[in-house]
């Protein structure tokens, strides 16, 4: 597990491009038959991925957590951006299809990832946060008939926003949030931009009570997203390629524009779970 420390905004505004990328960009997440994890001191979030191709992959705590097992003191959200696969949680097997997810509560000892087809492997994207209580483990589907242990994303949590004229026609699909999937602090969702739209959030905002991690994907290898970060009056950018993630501190804006449309997963942890608790930044105030 790679460790990253927190950074002050007063320091970040002096960073070079290379230093910005070292501190905030996460590359190489989806490596065949490996679990890759990055532990950030910013709200103690862990960002990672499990990509089982020819093997089952077992999630372990590693020395960094000083725990018997990964979820001894943590909760975890998973969204599959690859082919169909399975997640075995303490002996119960969940079939997790493309664009489906899971919330796995604190105290689950064994988590095992596998793919149904090595030619079309699952790509399990992971966000994990410290937890103080156990919430129910559930499979999260975008549509279908509710079953025991399964949550169907509510219609009100599939929100269409923006317009083509402003290059930000997009659909936000909220997976983990209060009123749908119970958690201690973790929230996760997926936003998809329509063809011809490239801006994921504009006007942009900050939220001092939560940090965020973005995973950008659904792009060809020669495409990219300009991810904008920093204080509103000290903006910086990071060029991000397909299936790369970026850490966004609570003091930073988190907005982006791509060379074409794309999809991204957002994960938030911190002080509260009020999705709309954000501080908007007027476009005239950006520098």
TrEMBL record:
Annotated residues for binding of Zn(2+): 205, 207, 212, 254
Protein function: Catalyzes the isomerization of 5-dehydro-4-deoxy-D-glucuronate to 3-deoxy-D-glycero-2,5-hexodiulosonate.
EC identifiers of the protein: 5.3.1.17
Name listed for the protein in its UniProt record: 4-deoxy-L-threo-5-hexosulose-uronate ketol-isomerase
UniProt cofactor(s): Zn(2+)
Keyword hit for Metal-binding: yes
Biological process (GO), any one: D-glucuronate catabolic process
Co-factor: note: Binds 1 zinc ion per subunit.
Annotated organism of origin: Murimonas intestini
Entry annotated with the keyword Zinc: yes
Alphabetical UniProt keywords: Isomerase, Metal-binding, Zinc
First-tier enzyme category under EC: isomerase
Chain's gene name: kduI
